[in-house]
Write a structure and sequence with these properties.
Distance between the termini: 61 Å
Radius of gyration: 23 Å
Order of helices and strands: HEEEEEEEEEE
Strand order of the largest sheet: 3-1-8-5-6
Largest sheet: 5 strands, mixed
Helix content: 10-25%
Number of helices: 1
């Protein structure tokens, strides 16, 4: 009876290791393209041109002067609400990605970002606005 349990446990362990090996092999061998469609009045940039299975990538959107982002789609689905500071994080990539963006003429008002930094001594001060750089 004891031998049978050990044999069964060994078979289960071997099965788990085999499945783990297959998934790690898939992770390192499978890569998927990230395609950025050319947009009028703006530029798209991605941190990767290909992504491994279940990895992440960041797409940055740069509107031309006088334009703002109207809409961003990933594989046909609107992702505009997920934008944070003109960046979109793609998570758990498991297939080809197609990112499209539309830019519209801005209404003329420019939004400024101000950051106040609390210092260790308890005082606060003004910091320069965030850079538009993606990385």
């Amino acid at each position: 009876m004891q031998k049978r349990r050990r044999r069964m446990l060994a078979l289960i362990c071997a099965g788990v290791l085999a499945v783990a090996g297959v998934f790690s092999g898939l992770h390192f061998s499978c890569t998927f393209p990230i395609v950025l469609e050319d947009a009028e009045h703006g530029t798209l940039y991605c941190t990767k041109s290909r992504a491994r299975l279940f990895s992440s990538a960041v797409v940055c959107l740069y509107p031309e002067q006088g334009f703002t982002i109207e809409r961003v789609t990933v594989n046909g689905e609107d992702q505009t609400e997920r934008l944070q500071r003109n960046r979109l994080t793609l998570r758990l990539i498991h297939g080809e990605i197609l990112v499209c963006a539309a830019f519209k003429k801005s209404d003329g008002q420019t939004a400024f970002d101000a950051v106040f930094v609390a210092k260790k001594n308890g005082s606060a001060g003004y910091a320069e606005p965030f850079s538009e750089a993606c990385i």
